[in-house]
Amino acid sequence: MNEVMKAILICPEHRLTGGVFQRMKPLALMPILGRTLLDHTLARLKRQGYMEVLVLASDRPEQVRESVGGGEAWGLEVEVIATPNELAADVAESQFSVRRANEPRPLVMVVDGLPEVSEKPLWRTNFATFELLMSAVSSPELSPLMTMRAIGPDVWVSSKARISPTAEITGPVWIGPHATISSGAKVGPNSIVEGGAFVDKRARVESAWVGPATYAGAGTAIGESFAWGNGLLNLTDGSFLEVKDDFLLKDLARPSRSRRSVSWVERVLAFLLMLLSFPKAGWVMLRSWMRREAVFDDKRVILPPPGRVDAFSRTHNLLRLNGAEGLLGRWPELWRVCRGELALVGNRPLSAEEVTALRGPVGQLWLESPAGVFSLADAEGADGESLSESLAHAAYFTTQRTLALRWRILRRCAQSFLFAERQTQDLTLSPTYPTI
What we know:
This protein is α/β, with parallel strands linked by helices. The chain is built from 12 helices and 25 strands. It has helices spanning 19-22, 37-47, 61-68, 89-96, 126-137, 264-290, 333-338, 352-357, 360-368, 376-379, 387-399, 403-419; strands spanning 6-10, 31-32, 35-36, 52-57, 77-82, 107-110, 148-152, 155-158, 162-163, 168-169, 173-175, 180-181, 186-187, 191-193, 198-199, 204-210, 214-216, 221-228, 231-234, 240-242, 249-251, 296-301, 316-321, 343-345, 372-374. The strands form 6 sheets. Strands 7, 8, 10, 11, 13, 14, 16, 18, 19 and 20 form a 10-stranded mixed beta sheet that branches. The two termini are 47 Å apart.
């Protein structure tokens, strides 16, 4: 009777330099040479004859479960189990390994590297990560996978990529499916261009990792960096730069416009609120100017719906009136409503760090809902800027977002915004909120 070979995979929860990428998705689901780390690992286990795989995930296990399903794509039997934190190998084996007599011990490994290339894990340092990726380009086990073909010494290009005849490709280079390299562009040496990326005319990519669906503009030079969406991460010093000029660097996965347009009624109401509150706001600005203080504070936020959420996501500068009390501090945000970028009523815009902290269905609903100047938490007298205090209110609002509820929130918040009066309990809501 043949023994069934079993394996236990531990998805990494946090790594020293992986935080930038972890905002995007669990590290086990990071795209590496066109496939996720978990995909690479499961494919390798299948080649080695393993049949049953248990995946332990503490970071966004629902995403891991959705990614692998039941293992049908690899011809494996895969089960994903959520754990409260990343387990050590011996602890994972003792808790989740059930063996019959004389049955061999299961293989236990952490999904944080490319074993075909090196036993060293990724995410130690940015430069070390890049070195491992470049060594994988020439790996006989990794490079030929999918639709890849060698068109020169250490030059692997997908048959689904589009390469201009006048483009200059110098190995070692890896160019993934549906990537586009335009005329006059130079890629390499030591470069990886993930699937769906677009390197425009006369752009140069050298010693760089260009992420999926990333546009490198005409004439742009990218060197010794990770370029993902609108962000550049320097390999040497770890510095990060958000590029706001879409002609230089752009996230092609980011929607060009919101899926929910702001109505003209909201825009007109926002403009009226700006006019009515201008005397108070003007006095606050004048007072700050006379004291030689900053008139505005700013916060970088991500406005829904994001194409993806990570350190490389496009952020927006949200201004707050310095020295203003209560909701009046959001006076500059009303202009964004007039421009159609914010709703009057919605969940509060969040920073990239706060978005990363959102997990599960509540977080997904928050990101899919329009961001607004006034929130249900504000109407209920809670701290609308506090993520912990706003979660329950946001969960209720996203599931019960009726016109009547939005109008009551607006009426109550507008009264507090204009007159700064003590709020009265005139907003009737469900006595209980959804469990988070």
